[in-house]
Amino acid sequence: MHSSISLNISNLWIERGERYLCKDMSFSLSGGDICKINGENGAGKSTLLKIIVGILSPLEGTVYYNGEDVSIHRDLLHQDVLYLGHNSAIKSVFSVAENLRWYFPNASDEAIAYALSVVSLSGYEETPSSQLSAGQKRRITLARLWLTDKPLWLLDEPFTALDVQGVSSLEKRMRDHISNGGLIILTTHQDIDASLNVKEINLTL
Amino acid sequence: MSWTWFHKLGSPKWFFQFASRWSLGVFLSGVVLLLIGLVWGLAFAPEDYQQGNSFRIIYIHVPAAILAQSCYLGLGVAGFVFLVWQMKMAPIFIKSVAPLGALVALIALVSGAIWGKPTWGTWWVWDARLTSVLVLFLLYMGVIAIQNSLEDKILADKAVAVIGVVGLINLPIIKYSVEWWNTLHQPATFKLTEKPAMPMEMWLPLLISSLGLYLFIAGLAMLRMQTEVLNRERRSSWVKEEVLKNGI
Amino acid sequence: MTYFSFTKGELLTLLRRKQDTMNALIFFLMVVILFPLGVSPSPEFLSVAAGGIIWCAASLAILMSVEGMFKEDFNDGCLEQWLVSGLSLPVLILLKVSIHWLIVIVPLLIMAPILAQMLFLPMDIFYVLLQTLILGTPALFLIGTIGSALTVSLRHGAVLMLLIIIPFYLPVIIFSTGAIRAAQSGMLYDGQIAILAAISLASLVVSPIMSAISIKASVS
Ligand SMILES: Nc1ncnc2c1ncn2[C@@H]1O[C@H](COP(=O)(O)OP(=O)(O)O)[C@@H](O)[C@H]1O
Ligand SMILES: [Mg+2]
User: Which stretches of A13-149 are DSSP H helices?
Assistant: First the structure.
């Protein structure tokens, strides 16, 4: 069970390439929530995630994590966050298992084997990542979700590389996560299982 | 101490209005002083007893060399201010001043070469000052190159600020190393601009032309910065008002 | 990610990509060979110029090997993960440069005595060369890292990086070759060695901070 966490977005203005992506947006989330960011292609979904995680800065406004201004106390957020961006962040010189070990040096062999089996990569442990397809690399990245103990997940289009079975395992994992008090913000074009009680944020400008 | 001037200076709007009032005046007084200094120095100041008339090039060379250094110093300070306080005017200053700095460095190099011909018999000698100015010129080229290469404007601003700060730290080291290297290689007989006990009639025009060049470049820099401010702030309401009121 | 797993990963990457390091070393060798062939093979010229030749070649080789340091991390998205890992970015950068330095400098020092022989550098002067290489090359790596971080988002940033970084290499090259020259003429060279160490120490403080700023600005 995670201790209770909260994320508050207050009066956020985002500008990218001389275009406003959102004006004066505010919302609050707390542990147990799943939040889905909606918007067309190029609406700024990925940009919003990057701003929340502190890779980009907003034009105006503040992101508060557990009540602390993230632009000042970035460490507090980064201790708790797992961010999966567009890029898979997989090193091609490493084998599949080595890539996961890079992120989770203390994970047991069994845990890694289990995480890989969920994303249907069993038996690929020792394969060099350079020999995998883009979709397979993406699934290694997703395997991190079964190894992590971070409470806050920011997922940019997590479902894209998954088949039907993979999608339902991921939905199950997300359900477990929020029932443990975790918080998930994600972007996707897919409809998510209605029983997950998804909150929606729309980016329409 | 009051910091309002610092915040004002950081506001593009305030700067624009300040500069519209002053830039032309600064520029013109620079031109006048520069002309007085140069005519005085080139035509009326007494001849040097060792070098004859060729020494007169220092009335161009020295102001240019000093200014080339000052501009880089300014660049470095602006870079620091930008990295620490994110002041909006700092990258505008860097972007506007870098080409001017490169220009004065080039003037210093060319005038040094012209001075070298009658004095040393060659256009180029690895004199400490000339070499430092050459390196300075290359540093400016680096700043300009990175500003132009990076498409992302925010990144370009950060990058020139970083280069500026690294340059600021390195400038004294580079200068010292070049001077030290120079003494190692050639005990120069004639040093460009080493004038112990210059008489007043000689250094007064030098002072005037230096001041003139400072103001001249400052005026140009302000004009360039104004353009840059307008360009960057073109979507803000005060720029629209400004353009409606006064035209472009 | 922990500092330890990061360091281990970097080490593993460099060891598996041996060829990249090899290329830099071969490049170093080739630049050195250019001088006897291009200028003069006479022992009188070479023994005087050896320090300068080796230093110029080493500077270029180091620039080459540092240039692409963050490229792959940038392209595959790992730099983003560094930023959100909760670890200190300057420390990560410092770890990465240190490993790069170790992996390049060790073979370079092994090659040095052979080159010194080929360039007719006397043994006692060779020890001075070694000292300057050990104390001066950290500065070259650290300063080069700033350039590498600044140009990481550019597809063809190599030439631009050389352009902005080489002027900052001058003091290191001047004092290193100055120390060697002083030793050759039988003078004391402690001063130059101390300055080299000071420059490397200063770079150790400045470079990770500046590189971190550049990387943060580049990742977006
Ligand atoms: N590196 C960039 N520089 C400038 N503008 C960008 C950059 N990346 C994306 N953008 C702009 O930001 C907008 C939002 O992009 P993004 O957040 O990736 O959209 P989404 O994820 O919703 O498809 C796009 O319209 C795009 O034009
Ligand atoms: Mg996107």
Answer: 45-53, 74-80, 96-103, 109-118, 134-143
Q: Which residues contact C135 (CB under 8 A, 6 or more apart)?
A: C193, C196, C197, C200
pLDDT of residue B204: 87
What are C169-215's pLDDT values in tens digits?
Answer: 999 999 999 999 999 998 999 999 999 999 999 999 999 999 999 99
Query: In this structure, which ligand is nearest to the CA of A39?
Result: 1
Select from C192, C102, C188, C176 the least CA-distant residue to C133.
C176
Q: Nearest-CA neighbor of B155 among A140, C74, C38, C59?
A: C74
Given strand A81-84, what is the order of strands in its sheet? A81-84, A152-156, A183-187, A34-38, A198-202
- Tell me which DSSP letter residue A148 carries: -
Secondary structure class of A200 (helix, strand, coil): strand
What average pLDDT does this structure show over C128-150?
96
Nearest-angstrom CA–CA distance, C138 and C66 = 12
- Within 13 Å and on the Cβ side, how many CA atoms surround B101? 28
Tokens of C33: 């060979």
Phi/psi at A188 (5° precision)? -165, 155
- A89-127: burial string, b at 16+ Cβ within 10 Å, e else: bbbebbbbbbbbbbbbeebeeeebeebbebbebeebeee
| Count of CB atoms situated within 10 Å of the CB of B231 | 10
- To the nearest 10 degrees (0 to 180), the angle between helices B89-120 and B200-232 is 150
Helix, strand or coil for residue A42?
Answer: coil
Task: Please provide the distance, in angstroms rounded to a whole number, between the alpha carbons at the two ends of chain B.
Answer: 38
Q: What does the radius of gyration of chain C's CA atoms come to, in whole angstroms?
A: 18
Q: Do A56 and C12 touch (CB under 8 A)?
A: no
Q: Tell me: the pLDDT tens digits for C117-133?
A: 999 999 999 999 999 99
Query: What average pLDDT does the structure give for chain C?
Result: 94
Q: Rounded to whole angstroms, how far apart are CA atoms A114 and A116?
A: 5
The full set of domain ranges for chain B reads: 16-47+54-246
What is d(CA B236, CA B122) in angstroms, rounded to the nearest whole number? 55
Longest dimension (CA), chain C: 57
CA A41 remoteness from chain centre: 18
Question: Side chain identity at C141, as an amino acid letter?
Answer: F
CB contact under 8 A, C78 and A75: no
Selected for mutation to probe chain C from B150, B153, B178 (highest C CB count within 10 Å) is B150
Rounded Cα–Cα distance for residues C200 and C13 (Å): 25
Q: Which two tokens stand for residue C82?
A: 């560094």
> Quick check: pTM over 0.90?
yes
Q: Which residues of C touch B154 (CB under 8 A)?
A: 217, 220
CB contact under 8 A, C217 and B173: no
Cβ of A85 below 6 Å from ligand 1:
no
Quick one: DSSP state of residue C35?
Answer: H
Question: Residue B168 CA to chain centroid, in angstroms?
Answer: 14
Cα–Cα distance between A25 and A9 in angstroms, integer? 7
State how far the Cα of C13 lies from the Cα of C185, in Å rounded to an integer.
44
Measured in degrees and rounded to the nearest 5, phi and psi for residue A88 equal: -75, -15
Query: What's CA A105's distance to the chain center, in Å?
Result: 20
Of B133, B136, B125, nearest to B190 by C-alpha is B125
Tell me the Ramachandran region of residue A67: left when phi exceeds 0, alpha when psi lies from -120 to 50, beta otherwise: left
Chain C: closest CA distance from residue A77 (Å): 8
Residues C37/C114, Cβ–Cβ less than 8 Å: no
